[in-house]
Amino acid sequence: MELIWLEDYLALADALNFSRAASARHVTQPAFSRRIRALEDWIGAPLFIRTTHSVALTPAGEQFRNQAEVLTRALHQLRRDTLEVAGRGAGPLSIAATHALSFTFFPKWVRGNEKILALGTLNLISDSMQACEQMMLRGDVQFLLCHHHPNISSRLETSQFKSIVVGADTLVPLSAPDQDGAPRWRLERTAPVRYLGYSEQSGLGRIIAGLRGAADRSFALETVFTSHLAATLLSMARAGDGVAWLPRTLAEEDMSLGRLVQAGDPGLAIPIEIRLFRPAARQGPIAEAVWAAFERS
Question: What are phi and psi of 134, to 5 degrees?
């Protein structure tokens, strides 16, 4: 049994595609397939159903998933703790953060908590919400910074993790203005509005899809583009390509300069939290000291 087999399994369980999973693991697809088969041989049962066009977890594969995540996370933590005890150091503390927060909130937040930096070096890893969740689930990072809404579930909302609120934000529907300063695209009961949406990897996309799906809207949206990057949607909204729900922390400069204006009633804005997640299990002394400092601040 090798740790790399567990990491390969989790990559395939997430992607459900051998090519994408092998690419994420930086290995050729034949070598990746051999390692998945080696894990299944060690367990003694198939974990995946393979067809010509699709991959799915077997019931045994579903059963294996949660404990594989727990075990992988625990092994990474065990290594870090052992290195600290041996006086070899645990290396920098890693924080995964979604792209939108990496560009705007994180730099100001860290500058406002300089005493935390004195406790250890922080390594920021910026990616989509889906990728950040995967890093946290596998133990590749000690902390995860993301947008969050209480009514939208996350893969980290289990007894295996805990979190604190470290900030607040608002998702605002924004459009470029017309020559009179009114929104070029307005959310109202007329023709469908061009919508710049988030892809499935995006945590902001989950929030908007969950809340929009539950609401009785008086307007229709026509999705013309999707991306997991809020910054990309901001650029397209600024260019007049449609309406996008954007974090105020990201769009506040464009709003103040009049390059973006609200595309509808203020009640269409969505208040959201900025949360910091961590594993519930005790981590090393430095990570615990940093967490305690975050809680106090």
Answer: -60, -40
